[in-house]
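Inverse folding, one chain.
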């Protein structure tokens, strides 16, 4: 290995590692703190401060959540194509900061929100100008999320993956740490921030997360010298399109009997295969034609015409993405099923007795702390107890594979909606017993702690599902597309929220003539029917997942190791101990 290359390798070893985690996770912690502090009680802000109807407010929030989870695709493509993850995170944080400042101003300045309701007069809804300012602020935070969300998790995992030649155990622990940090910040937001919003005012309630976001940008930038910063490998969408076009042009070209005859070029793929090259697979053979060398496919310089000829590694990048899609889809309906947790569940809580003692009433939005708290406990239990025990039986560093973990989470999630439906039946029965059906603002004499099971089960399921889904997408995606893969996680969240909006709209429209399931007065509605509908959809989603997971094939990877050459793995399996060492190539002579 040349001296300059060895110096670069040693520099990478000195950079990265666990010492970068406080700087990286601080950005995500404050982002999540700001997001949770804003979202957790926003249904109250829209209905009580801006005087929106319930369904319109619910759809506004799910549409906002959907947009915030759609923009990460754009941010990921920018990061993977030319900007790199560090600068994309930094710019996204600045946009998010501007959005939070605007939201705070909308709560403080009287001209940006309608006046409070007075006496028995009809409350005046927010004007078009006031709503436009609100939507503009939300759009800025959505753009900021596009730069932060897809890059933070990939950027953090890079610090461990490239710092340690055998990072499997550290990598899956990082994903647990990532979601644990998110949970801690969310817990603080749901308690401290929501209490301030309810009891002190929305100016301070939104201002505190805004200040927190400012510090997150400062802390993240301070860590700049410590980070490993991978060079962007060019537009991943362009490479995928090149493979598709080349394969289509050669659709009638016969494939060679020996896959080793397909075109490979390590030098060309160097920037997009730093930790190892993807190996040929027998699936989706149609795309292998893109790597068949024909006359006229090469330039006079010896370089391939990329719209006519692709390397095996680039073909396998496309195959990896296609193989991931069926399991990625599972996350969409999962989010659709949970989209009501920040809307209808809060309205349930608001109608119940929330007194912890005579002088203190729990804010309705703070009930989500039970979801976060159970998720944190489950993550700690999983990392410290479950994994060591499971490892003894499976021999895998992570105890079980992320596909198994995802399946467990999906199963648990079904029971959360069953609990929600049963509690709603009980809540309505008590309302009927005390003659409160026609009094939407009355407090039903039923403690809000009846909602704890549905919140807690959701948190347990989240600890299994979200971590496994994110790890699956990161690990099974091509190396040069990991920001894009992380964005797929948020794209599933985005699509799920839009599906939630569509589901609520359809249910509301279809049931208006048959009992009106969803209405402003939930005591007269049939919210329990909606929960049972969502439960049925989750059962179908679970069955679909089991079918997809049983046929999934892990990507094979030739893994580069520091001072150890290459090891060739079959069905890598996400650091789950499935790598089989079948050969070693000395890369120091390359």
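Residues assigned per position:
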């Amino acid at each position: 290995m040349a001296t300059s290359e060895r110096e670069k390798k040693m520099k990478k070893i000195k950079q990265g590692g666990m010492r970068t985690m406080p700087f990286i996770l601080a950005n995500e912690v404050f982002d999540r703190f700001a997001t949770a502090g804003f979202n957790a009680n926003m249904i109250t802000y829209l209905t009580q401060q801006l005087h929106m109807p319930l369904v319109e407010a619910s759809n506004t929030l799910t549409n906002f959540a959907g947009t915030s989870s759609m923009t990460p695709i754009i941010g990921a493509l920018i990061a993977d194509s030319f900007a790199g993850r560090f600068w994309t995170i930094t710019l996204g944080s600045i946009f998010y900061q501007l959005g939070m400042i605007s939201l705070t101003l909308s709560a403080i300045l009287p001209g940006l929100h309608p006046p409070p309701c007075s006496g028995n007069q009809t409350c005046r809804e927010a004007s078009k100008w006031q709503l436009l300012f609100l939507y503009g602020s939300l759009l800025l935070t959505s753009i900021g999320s596009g730069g932060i969300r897809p890059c933070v998790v990939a950027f953090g995992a890079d610090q461990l993956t490239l710092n340690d030649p055998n990072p499997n155990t550290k990598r899956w622990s990082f994903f647990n740490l990532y979601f644990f940090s998110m949970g801690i910040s969310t817990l603080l937001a749901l308690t401290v921030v929501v209490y301030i919003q309810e009891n002190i005012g929305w100016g301070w309630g939104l201002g505190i997360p805004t200040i927190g976001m400012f510090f997150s940008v400062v802390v993240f930038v301070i860590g700049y010298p410590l980070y490993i910063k991978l060079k962007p490998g060019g537009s991943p969408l362009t490479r995928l399109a090149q493979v598709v076009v080349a394969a289509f042009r050669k659709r009638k070209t016969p494939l060679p009997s020996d896959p080793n005859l397909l075109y490979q070029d390590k030098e060309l793929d160097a920037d997009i295969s730093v930790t190892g090259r993807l190996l040929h697979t027998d699936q989706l053979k149609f795309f292998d034609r893109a790597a068949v060398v024909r006359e006229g496919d090469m330039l006079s310089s010896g370089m391939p015409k990329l719209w006519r000829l692709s390397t095996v590694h680039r073909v396998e990048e496309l195959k990896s993405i296609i193989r991931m899609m069926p399991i990625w889809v599972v996350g969409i309906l999962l989010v659709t099923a949970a989209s009501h947790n920040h809307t209808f569940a809060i309205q349930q809580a608001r109608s119940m007795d929330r007194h912890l003692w005579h002088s203190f009433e729990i804010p309705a939005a703070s009930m989500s702390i039970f979801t976060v708290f159970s998720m944190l406990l489950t993550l700690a239990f999983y990392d410290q107890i479950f994994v060591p025990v499971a490892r003894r039986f499976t021999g895998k560093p992570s105890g079980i594979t992320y596909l198994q973990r995802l399946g467990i989470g999906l199963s648990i999630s079904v029971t959360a909606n069953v609990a929600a439906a049963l509690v709603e039946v009980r809540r309505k029965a008590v309302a009927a017993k005390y003659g409160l059906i026609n009094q939407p603002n009355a407090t039903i004499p039923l403690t809000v702690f009846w909602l704890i099971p549905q919140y807690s089960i959701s948190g347990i399921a989240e600890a299994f599902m979200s971590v496994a889904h994110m790890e699956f997408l990161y690990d099974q995606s091509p190396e040069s597309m990991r920001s894009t893969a992380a964005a797929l996680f948020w794209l599933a969240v985005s699509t799920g929220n839009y599906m939630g909006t569509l589901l609520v709209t359809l249910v509301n429209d279809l049931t208006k003539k048959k009992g009106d399931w969803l209405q402003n007065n939930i005591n007269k509605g049939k919210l329990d029917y909606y929960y049972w509908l969502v439960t049925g959809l989750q059962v179908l989603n679970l069955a679909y997942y089991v079918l997809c997971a049983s046929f999934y094939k892990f990507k094979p990877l030739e893994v580069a190791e520091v001072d150890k050459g290459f090891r060739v793995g079959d069905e890598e399996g996400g650091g789950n101990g499935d790598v089989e060492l079948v050969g070693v190539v000395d890369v120091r002579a390359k």
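The chain has two domains: 3-231+319-551, 235-310. The first helix runs from residue 3 to 14.
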